[in-house]
Design a protein that fits this description.
about 100 residues, alpha/beta, Oxidized Rhodanese, domain 1, five-stranded parallel sheet, 5 helices, globular
Length: about 100
């Protein structure tokens, strides 16, 4: 199971390096801007990411508006990640509050 998390908590996690952040948006959107430390994950690399990532470290899933990330967060929870979050509002919410990052 996963939980919702707001952008301010995610910002703290980024600053403390206390979570892995995955961005499931398309490559062009990711290139145009993303959360610091975020890793792009798509169908092409999701298996490799799942196999090589510490499942005990919290995982935050980010998408455009916080909708697609819910399904992806559920998937990662099924893959054995112990603490999974879907970021409420997605990258659009992040960008509106933290535009310079």
């Amino acid at each position: 199971m996963f939980q919702e998390i707001d952008i301010h908590r995610v910002k703290e996690m980024v600053e403390n390096n206390s979570a892995n952040i995955v961005d499931i948006r398309d490559p062009a959107s990711f290139s145009g801007g993303h959360i610091p430390t975020a890793v792009p994950v798509s169908d092409a690399n999701v298996q490799e990411f799942t196999e090589q990532t510490d499942k005990d470290k919290p995982l935050v899933v980010c998408c455009y508006h916080g909708i697609s990330s819910q399904g992806a967060a559920a998937y990662f929870a099924e893959q054995g990640f112990k603490e999974v979050y879907s970021m409420t509002g997605g990258y659009e919410a992040w960008r509106s509050v933290f535009p310079g990052e």
